[in-house]
Amino acid sequence: MNLSPLQKARYEYVPKLPGMLRNGIAEISVKNGEATSSVADQDKIKALFPNTYGKNEITFVKGSNTSAAKKQVVGVILSGGQAPGGHNVICGLYDALKATDKNNVLLGFKGGPSGLIDDDYVEFDDAFIDAYRNTGGFDIIGSGRTKLETEEQFSIVTKVAEKHGLTAIVIIGGDDSNTNAAVLAEYMAANNTGVQVIGCPKTIDGDLKNEDIEASFGFDTATKTYSELIGNIERDANSAKKYWHFIKVMGRSASHVALECALETQPNICLIGEEVADKKMSLSQIASQIADSVEKRGNAGNNFGVAIIPEGIVEFVPEFSKLIAEINELLAGDNTEKFNALPDWDAKYEFIEKGLTKESMAVFAILPQLIQQQLFLERDPHGNVQVSLIESEKLLSALVKDELDKRKAAGTYKGKFGVQHHFFGYEGRCAFPSNFDADYCYSLGYNAFMLIQYGYTGYLSKVSNLSKPAEEWVAGGMPITKMMNIERRNGEDKPVIRKALVELDGAPFKYFAANRDKWAVETCFTYPGAIQYYGPSEVCDLTTRTLALEKG
Fold this sequence. Notes:
Number of domains: 3
Largest sheet: 9 strands, mixed
CATH class of the largest domain: Alpha Beta
Number of strands: 15
Number of helices: 23
Radius of gyration: 25 Å
């Protein structure tokens, strides 16, 4: 196999562990913390998880290892979208498992949760693992989005576990995947299978975090990757001086990625969905806000700029959310077939006009035809609009152009408005993990095995104090049920991990809000450049601006 020089060098990188985990397996002991309760709906969550609810948080400390010695056969899966560092979670898990007893076994189930159901697996050995150390992607065993949530699935997984003599299953995933881990852990405990279930917090969107989970893995690398690209575009804009670049970044349910990229690059505009929802902003108000920046810069001779837009922005706009809800109702049942059978867009437009309320039709009417048609593309499995298919960067630039045309006609805007569009998403999901993510993920995997060794189940691998050098990181675990509440999903009340949104009273947003008016008018671009893997610690071990501001 041909390897790039960077690939060869990264294989040799030795991830840094929290200081306590460097003591050696025999010198790792447990310190019990407080008993826990869920973030909301305590009675309902407790009733659903009688065997795993209310357990103590734990911290690993230096001391004599008191865990019972036994052979461990552990299964691991990667679940959901890719995030840089997933391979290192598996490497850390493997190394801790083998350091405890070379006869321990790690099985990787392929293609995500479906690998457990289909009994499609590989047994890892040193050569297999060594080929994936410190690399991006999930290609070591692949991933998938199958949900483990039915009794039938749990029964099959139990039989697969019995067949292989599994003592534990590690699920590496985001909020939905770790919700599934909690439900599976409860099933295994209720049925006395002896199989433990441990989760690891993954998502580049950054919305799996709380007072215990300071960061989900992959967020650091992905935002650094996007910020490099945004910085490159800013440099180009400042060189050519003739385009406004509208850049959409991943993050459908929260705007953490957009905010972090703005803190790294200081664009003229960055929309934060949570603020849009809080202020109940309309599409026209958003367009007007962006147009204000374009006008002031254009009238000063600066006909260029950069606007960062979170992927899910339209879902935060109340009038747009109402429009989408009405469209979902309009196309319910047989109406989708009736709509698709209409001969042309004029006929479809008439159908839409009759079916929407006056308020929603007013919103629909101001949308560019391209966006109108995107709202009626293929539905998701539940029959709803696929919001991720809406090119919100093009929607907003078109609305801004309409607003600027009005201002030009009124004589207030004297500039020129040329536009380029970008969407950064897949570019960051499988990047070579930064040193931070390489270290953090390896620690999460190593730590996950310590939770298994000490008999815990329904726990999330937890490494905290992340804004400090790795030597000072703190390893331990927290019950997944602590993060859960009840939400309405597809017409049913479901226990789920609560997504963490951007906090408008948090330090990262406050810093952004304090500076954005200046950034909107002046050219304050900063250029992060490529991720640095070698060099001074303050450069190559740098954490995110979000984490640095949150932890002071």
